[in-house]
Amino acid sequence: MTASEQVASGAAGPDPELLDRQAVRSASGAVTGMVLFVASEGVFFAAFLGIYAVSYAAVRVWPPAGITGPSLVLPTIGVLVLLASGGVIGQAMRLARRPEYHRGVTLWLAAGLAGAVIFGVLLAVGYASIPFGVGQGIYESLFYVITGLELAHVVGGAALLAVVVARASSGELALRRDPVQAAAIYWYFVVGLGVVIYAILYLGAIR
Amino acid sequence: MMRDTMTPDSAVRKREPVHHNWRRRALQLALPIAVLLVTSGCGVLQPGLSAKARDVHGLFYIILWLALPVFLFVEGMLVIGVIRFRRRRGDDAEPPQTYGSNGAYAAFFAVPLAIIVVLLSFGEVTVGRVDRQEPHPAERLVVTGSQWQWSARYVKEGLSASGKTATDKSAGRPLTMALPAGQTTQITLESADVIHGFYVPGMLYMKNAVPGHPNVFTVTPTRTGIYRGQCTQFCGLWHSKMTLVLEVLTPSKFHAWVQRQQQAQSKGGSCAPTGSSITLTAQHITWDKSCIAAVAGKPFQVTINNKDAGIAHNFAIWKNSSLKHRLYQTPNVTGPATKTFTVPVLPPGKYYFQCDVHGPAMSGTLIIGTPGG
Amino acid sequence: MTTTDVLAKPAAPRPRSARVLDWLTTTDHKKIGIMYIVNSLVFFAFAGTLAMLLRTQLMQPGNNVLSPQSFNEAFTIHGTVMIFLVILPLLSGFGNYFVPLQIGALDMAFPRVNAASFWLLPIGGLTIVAGYLTKGGAAAAGWTNYVPLSLQGGTGEDLWILGLLIVGTSSLLGAINFIVTVLRLRAPGMSMTRVPIFTWATVTTSILIVLAVPSLTAGLVMLLTDHHLGTVFFDPSHGGSIANYLNTFWFFGHPEVYMLIMGAWGVVSEIIPVFSGKPLYGYRIVILALMLIMALSFTVWGHHMYTTGIVDDSFFSVTTELISVPTGLLVLAWLFTLWKGKLRFEPPMLFALGMIAMFVIGGIDGVWMASPAADFAVHDTYFVVSHIHYVLLGGSLFGIFAGLYYWFPKMTGRLLDRKLGIWQFWLLIVSFNVTFFPMHFLGLMGMPRRVATYPVSSGWGMLNLIETISAYVIALSMLVGLANIIITLRRPRTAPADPWGGNSLEWATMSPPPAHNFDMLPEIRSERPVRDLRIALSAAKAAGSGPPGAPAAPGAPGELAAGSEGAAGPEAGQ
Ligand code: HEA
Ligand code: HEA
Ligand code: CUA
Ligand SMILES: [Cu+2]
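Above: the input entities. Below: the structure tokens describing the complete assembly.
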């Protein structure tokens, strides 16, 4: 008889309390998991922005001579929409945090989703009027790749919101706000990213 | 010692408590062997062809003397611990449970830190010396790495030298470059394509040839002799064959060497024009011709047949190999491709041509003259 | 989660196809852990075979066993596979199996994500290896894949990039899962200052992965766009720069090497105390050291670029040398743990001791090269190859073997053969040193790494010949290990729950554990809960709650024995 057998050889199954703890805590892990994922995404974009900074510091004029920066009209509208969608999702979060289930959660989430879609469309449409090609120089390369990755993240974020909206409207999330919160964190990241990119790639390219 | 029971607790068997002599003797032997082994490490290091190299050599010994105690301490504690603290059979009591003390922790941080600080100071001083640009270089060289050979241009003398790339069929030929002993040479490292590593073990110094980022260093060789060098940064198929030979000569011999090279180069090839079109084939980073000729007084056509897949070459005409005046230049042609260009009228004479991407490694003589003359 | 029928009478064996399907669809962290390990061992045999080819080619000057192209592919794939598909996943495999057990959880936080991160691994690995089937051959630009050389590559290179993107995603998902599991699922009483060091090491490794792998991902994305979409990140003639690649790669690359070793440190930190009968010396300070190393490892990447003239050599030499202080602290903690202990030389302990002995050599090599002026003389030579193998083979892989011998009974219910284990250890440690120590000399003599061949006149032939012969002995030692596994797996399951007198919670359940891991958990009052339990039980026994040898506490050992095919404690044989 060893110490360990005493522990292992209890009833024919785990202590129900162990099971409960595992289930509850795993679920709320979604938020922590999303925070970590977003941190990782942050480093990913930081790598590109770091190269942007180094390239910027290496030349006298920026963007390098001979480039007209992108038009500001659509991106400005876009970033405002994006900020609004962030606020809207924030409101959804606030409602979701209430102890009792609130129907508004779904509506606010849906509104945020709409904002995401509009921003994505504006970003995509904007490409048509960019006055430069991808291979002309480092600014152009950075511009296309960073905004392209941003677009990919907007699409991903919108998909995530769509899933949450669907699940919330079916009432599935009535008792669990973690998925809403996780999706919201991701979307905040996308909003923050959009603002930084707007400031650096668009505003920063005004000569 | 070994038993086949499945319970290891009982498998730990009795060993004689007597301390065997062989054990102490083994320890007594192990220490000198370890020292010998490690010091012989520095023995295989080349003594170095310059003062800078000897600085590095000295640093090796400093690191060695700092590292050796660390090495012996750790391995010694392991060996002694293993011998002294083996569990005796039947001794099931727990040994004293020591969890550690703050004093010990402080020492754990402090002692290695102290070693590191000493090491860093010596390291910093040495790297400062080694990287220092010695003033007023007597010679200036531009050394260019390309897949897969070195070429060197003596800026003052307008002299170019280059190796020849190995292929499946031929072993290639290393670049031979001479340096004057006792005088400072400044070397600018450039790359025509990928990153290469300029390394002459005798210099105990290595620098990369990085595209778009020329690196400059100086060397003042003090010991004459022939030194082998090799590209150390992996650069593709024939990386292993990208070698060079460094000859450190007395200044008078060096100048004789330069003159011999210049003569050989100005003799160059000689050839006579045969028509108004020339075809140059590039393969394995070499031209198929070292001398081409065209008729004076009219434009002529040059066809570049680049067989090097994925590699860019061009064709450029310079007044001479000092590369000061470029008279004509085609855009790059990336292989496999064939392109034809028209070269405008040039006054009769002897010119130097090369692929600007690969430099002297792909160069030759262009003669503008009269047919048959 | 179902309460599995551990105690039920053995049912009629299920058809093989159903059992295979079980494994393919499982979300049980233990099965996933085993799949991680098996998958890695298969890739290990492959990458090791490539190493044998490399050594055969280098056996003599001017050899022609491999063409230059095949040689270049071979070391590229050897390095890539060893790093990304052998060492890291082996440690993740142990992590998967033992982190939940060590913290008293029933599974990982996200079991399905866990399955996904496993399955991405063979997919990514096969993608990389599939380069061998393309016309241009596999990737051949080294595991560091420097530009612009790598941009000259063909399909094999693209597959390499794609494969690494997949493997990177797998690591990232796995890492997040580990962190959340440890943060959220620890048993009551299991505070962060009672978590076993192996689990701690898995957490610090995971943090490194979360913050460093995205830098590699960015580098790979830029490689792809430069290669196929015409961007100019790495093209100096258009405002790009080689430095953009070097910095993104090594910002990942150095933390990467710590990802490859921290888990092994963790294993050794488990084993040394158990087989010395003492607690880990300075448990808390070891945790501090792990965190310092984790943080510092983001500041040292430039030491791979001393000779490029792109980075500030002095800055990086300071940070690099500093990192050996906390690393040294770990080594000292192990040494002081075994000092005055009562050492038992079981195979796990042998490998752990071997790990310390070898890793120190590799570490000193590292400190050597961290001094820029010294690195100028040995960078990109066989000196570096020696360092690589002393830290990765002598360090990580020895640690992993220690873990394999240590945990094999827990995972399979069978103890690996002791005699064969000892044979494997001595064969390996001797041949390893004979193979890789002379590489220091070759490096100092100026033999560059990654050369397909060398001339007779170089004078490197003798040492290379010795190394190659010795490398075959390494392979032999690996075969001994393989044979040990195969032989042991055909034996009956006789391993007791706690064969070594362990400290951490994985020893508080059966070998192998039931699907839900624990029926109940002991109280956790220190970082050695199972030892506490052992002491409490023997105290109870001594207090005379029963005749010696009889059940001392509630529970029905007879029943248990039926369920787990005759599990018996160490004392059972007495
Ligand atoms: C597991 C992997 C691992 C680990 C742990 C390390 C650990 C270290 N490495 Fe290593 N390294 C690699 C894997 C690893 N490395 C690889 C794969 C490469 C090659 C990459 C390529 O392909 O190019 C490389 C290359 C590499 C280089 C570049 C060499 C070159 O290309 O020229 C350098 C240079 O500074 C370096 C340094 C170090 C240092 C200082 C440590 C330190 O962390 C070591 C610290 C440990 C000790 C020092 C020993 C114990 C300490 C004590 C007992 C205390 C007292 C000691 C002193 C005071 C000295 N490594
Ligand atoms: C964990 C990492 C790891 C491990 C374990 C190894 C293991 C080995 N390595 Fe590795 N090596 C690297 C990581 C590793 N290597 C890296 C990162 C590089 C740099 C790559 C680059 O430059 O890009 C490198 C480079 C490298 C070189 C230099 C290549 C060059 O620069 O030209 C050499 C040369 O000798 C070498 C040899 C070996 C040998 C002989 C083994 C042996 O120990 C292998 C023994 C293992 C086996 C033999 C397999 C196990 C066997 C079975 C399971 C049984 C069945 C199969 C057979 C017996 C065939 N390695
Ligand atoms: Cu040039 Cu290697
Ligand atoms: Cu490093």
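Note for the figure: Chain A touches chain C through 55 residues (CB under 8 Å).
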